[in-house]
Design a protein that fits this description.
The protein is α/β, with parallel strands linked by helices and about 450 residues long. It has helices at about 15-35, 50-65, 80-90, 100-115, 130-135, 195-205, 215-230, 260-265, 270-280, 290-300, 315-325, 330-340, 345-355, 365-370, 380-390, 405-415, 420-430, 440-455, and strands spanning about 5, 35-40, 70-75, 95, 145, 160-165, 170-175, 185, 210-215, 235-240, 245, 310.
Length: about 450
């Protein structure tokens, strides 16, 4: 059997790091199994779905390294869902209901006042044809509910009805259909909620495993019986823990919280984002993985925590720094050139500054320091200024190379008696305008003799 998984975002906003966690759990599982990854856009909500969001989702996934084997748009498959709905109607499993949202809300409040669960009482099943026609005549349109198989003969006497499955991540699970309301599958305007189109697509595209957030666990019991009602084989289900922001609040596409677009535009490396999205909440250390293949080897569903995990942006900075510090010049040459780094000095420049960069873009801050003119002379005391000028007289002759800094500071130490910070800090301030940064032994050949003399004088 070929493993087939799917990632099914609604194109109503930008993907965030929590969405990526689900996408990667599916992608990496399929990669480990030699399977296929289907990208399915749940875009039947025509008011909120946008083509530009769908395009951005594909861009986001490609940035991470995820290339789907197939792409499906639910908006192009409405006839499949209509056919499935008609089969359910003919079987007496999809029935019309005419309550308004306000009426349903009042029913729930009455039940709550009696300390009863807010379960729909199937009042619509008692409607006569004349009553239905009267509702239609006054302008009401039916929404349609799926009749759960949680009774023996009388649907108004539901009983405990357990649905069991062996969850790929959480292990044995049970849902009691007797405690649930019949789910609405079609709205009054004829549009579909998530459930029916999703099941039809999973069945018709041969999805073998559905891996998603654990906020869908209860839904799974309903969906298993709906698969059966449509004569489809239910896939294997797996539910992973969710990510929250560091404060514990949930992530949302619509607010843009930790969106992949914002992370990409902020200069994060894709594997830093992917590593944290997968490894947070798993047992073991959180490390920057070099590629998706290595990340796939780390993913073990037995390691997934049962509780929600917090996404800490500080961890992302740490991982990104680890990746950036190891990047070869070839991987960043184009980005450095765009910052104004001369091509013939690019390799030396990157070797010198990358250890001080959390993001590749941070290298841009060192471009004017190395290749430009400092806008202002650093504020040095009279003694430090005199020391710097004296040190300038001891500069070695000829072109600067890897040993120039050591040779020069050796002469300065011998001539002035200074050592350690009193020797190095005034020179750093004079040469770079900063009290921190890359090793001056690596920067000095890049700054060059002419700029060095100008900055010391």
């Amino acid at each position: 059997m070929t493993v087939i998984v799917r990632f099914a975002p609604s194109p109503t906003g930008h993907l965030h790091i929590g969405n990526l966690r689900t996408a990667l759990f599916n992608w990496l599982f399929a990669a480990n199994q030699g399977g296929r990854f289907v990208l399915r856009f749940d875009d039947t909500d025509t008011e909120r779905s946008r083509r530009e969001f769908a395009d951005m989702i594909e861009t986001d996934l490609a940035w991470i390294g995820i290339g789907p084997h197939a792409v499906i748009h639910q908006s192009e498959r409405l006839d499949h869902y209509a056919a499935a709905a008609e089969r359910l109607k003919q079987a007496g499993l999809l029935y019309p209901c005419y309550e308004t949202p306000d009426e349903l809300d009042r029913k729930r409040k009455r039940l709550a006042a009696r300390n009863l669960p807010p379960v729909y009482g199937r009042e619509a099943l008692r409607l006569s044809e004349a009553e239905k026609q009267a509702f239609e005549a006054e302008g009401r349109r039916a929404h349609w509910r799926f009749l759960l198989p949680n009774f023996t003969s009388d649907p108004h006497s539901p009983q405990r009805t357990e649905i069991h499955w062996d969850d790929l991540i959480r292990g044995p699970q049970t849902v009691d259909l007797g405690s649930l309301s019949d789910p609405v599958l079609m709205r009054a305007d004829g549009s579909y909620l998530y459930t029916l189109p999703s099941i039809v697509d999973d069945g018709e595209t041969g999805v073998t495993h559905v891996i998603r957030g654990d906020d869908h666990v209860t839904n799974t019991g309903v969906q298993i019986v709906l698969f059966r009602a449509l004569g489809l084989d239910a896939p294997v289900f797996g539910h992973h823990n969710l990510l929250t922001a560091i404060g514990g609040e949930g992530l949302s596409k619509r607010t843009g919280a930790l969106s992949l677009k914002s992370l990409r535009e902020s200069g994060y490396e894709p594997m830093a984002v992917a590593s944290l999205a997968v490894l947070v909440g798993l047992s073991g250390s959180i490390e920057a993985m070099p590629d998706l293949g290595a990340l796939a080897e780390r993913l073990r569903f037995d390691d997934v925590s049962p509780s929600a995990s917090k996404f800490d942006p500080a961890e992302l900075d740490r991982l990104n720094g680890e990746i950036v510090h190891a990047l070869p010049y070839a991987a960043v040459a184009g980005r450095l050139a765009a910052m104004g780094v001369p091509e013939d000095r690019g390799g030396m420049f990157w070797q010198a500054v990358r250890g001080n960069c959390v993001k590749v873009a941070d290298a841009g801050g060192w471009v004017p320091v190395v290749f430009g003119d400092l806008p202002d002379k650093p504020a040095l005391s009279g003694d430090e200024r005199a020391f710097v000028e004296a040190a300038g007289e001891l500069l070695p002759e000829g072109d600067f190379g890897p040993e120039t800094w050591r040779e020069w500071t050796g002469k300065v130490k011998q001539a002035t008696g200074r050592k350690g910070k009193p020797l190095f800090m005034p020179l750093r301030l004079a040469l770079t305008g900063l009290d921190h940064g890359p090793e001056l032994a690596a920067l000095l050949p890049l700054i060059g003799r002419e700029r060095t003399i100008a900055r010391l004088s």
